[in-house]
Amino acid sequence: MINLEIPKKFGALLNQAHQAAAEIFRPNSRKYDLAEHTYPKELDIFAALLDGVNASGEGGGGASGVRRTEKGTGIRNGANMSTVLGTIELCWGDLGFLLSMPRQGLGNAAIASVANEEQLARFGKLWASMAITEPDTGSDSAAIKTTAVKDGDDYIINGEKIFVTAGERSDAVVVWATLDKSLGRAAIKSFVVEKGTPGMQVVRLENKLGIRASDTAVIRFTDCRVPAANLLGDPNINKGFAGVMQTFDNTRPLVAAMAIGLAWAALEETEKLLAEAGIEVDYDKPANNQHAAAAAYLALEADWEAAKLLTLRAAWMADNAKPNSLEASEAKAKAGRVTTEITLKCVELCGSIGYSEHNLLEKWARDAKILDIFEGTQQIQQLIVARRLLGKTSGQLK
After folding, report:
1. N or C: which end of the chain has fewer CB within 10 A?
2. How many independent structural domains does the chain possess?
3. Hey, which family's this protein in (predicted)?
């Protein structure tokens, strides 16, 4: 039998996360959905608390929890697992709020994943967003056109990035760029570009379907000069893309965890509304012997449980220094897909209540869609899984 009890050592962190979700995220969720591009100032208190947890060394809270040791011996105290579990709790409150957390962006996870110790000391306390996607380059990260040309002790970056989460609010951006287009993916590296660097410009903010509490920016780099020391990880061009892609092995389970938390909120609210309508979900009866709405709910919950288990497995593997690229993509693909299905079905099951702005179900359905798109679309995750299972390269299976 699988023991699904949460280890006691995570109790305090998860309790704090749930309190923040219940007392800060959820009560202000609709407010910032309606006030797109406005920074949720309520986050500052919780962000400071999380900074304190990280500084205490008590266990990899937030984005810093994805760091693996230099010798590949894993993460002490299950930091990936605590980060995933904390993310689930916070996204039960509000996904957009989590994506707006200072110093907890995907760029912070990228720094934690591939930075050396000196870089971690310099950049570890910055709020960093991540810039990968380009106008002509979406899911195929290896095809990016932004260039980084060596010039003495610097690199000069030119290009445009779109859909940069927290791109205007963050202190720095982790930019993916190629050192030599002719070498393909092997030449792709990531660079930390701090705000205020000449040649870096936030061009505009996007208006979006969901996650409106989180800003999404277009950033242009024009002869943007950054120190060579800002190239994350190994500068060796023969150790390029694999090192950069390690970021995704760490962040895809986090995106899956976001989906798990959001779907959990929708399921919980739907069960409550069904009960108020006189429809009880009975776990001791077969689904086909219950009300049709209860049977549909049980099917949704089963899919949610499967996605959660895949996500926890990917995090556990990272904490135990096991390669988890396959499992990270499986978790992200499953969680992203089922969460969009769950939230839409919950709206349907709750009828006019689910469709109305008087309830958060319609917002959660809008927020959910991004989870099946960013950090690699559903189709890309399935392609990665197929390559891993069949032993094919990206050139052999496209």
Report:
1. N
2. 3
3. Belongs to the acyl-CoA dehydrogenase family.
The residues annotated as belonging to the active site are 375
Q: What is the pLDDT of residue 241?
A: 60
CA dist., res. 320 & res. 246, Å (int):
15
120 within a domain of the structure (yes/no): no
Q: Where in the sequence is the domain holding 378, given as residue range(s)?
A: 242-396
One-letter amino acid at 188 equals I
Q: What is the pLDDT of residues 82-124, one digit of tens each?
A: 899 999 999 999 999 999 999 888 899 889 888 889 999 999 8
Tens-digit pLDDT profile for residues 272-323: 999 999 999 999 999 999 999 999 999 999 999 999 999 999 999 988 989 9
Task: Give yes or no: residues 139 and 96 share one domain.
Answer: no
Report the distance separating Cα 212 and Cα 206, nearest Å.
10
What is the rounded distance in angstroms from the CA atom of residue 103 to the CA atom of residue 44? Answer: 11
Is 73 within the bounds of a domain? yes
Same structural domain, 260 and 294: yes
Q: Are residues 255 and 285 in the same domain?
A: yes
Which of helix, strand or coil describes residue 380? helix
Kindly write down the DSSP assignment for every residue of 236-292, as one continuous string.
-GGG-HHHHHHHHHHHHHHHHHHHHHHHHHHHHHHHHHHHHTT----TTS-GGGS-H
What contacts 249, CB < 8 A, 6 or more positions away? 113, 318, 323, 324, 325, 328
The packing angle between helices 79-93 and 241-276, to 10°, is 40
**Residue 209 belongs to a domain with what CATH number?**
2.40.110.10
Residue 205: inside a domain, yes or no?
yes
| Token pair recorded at residue 361 | 């179900």
Last residue of a domain, one of 193, 214, 232: 232
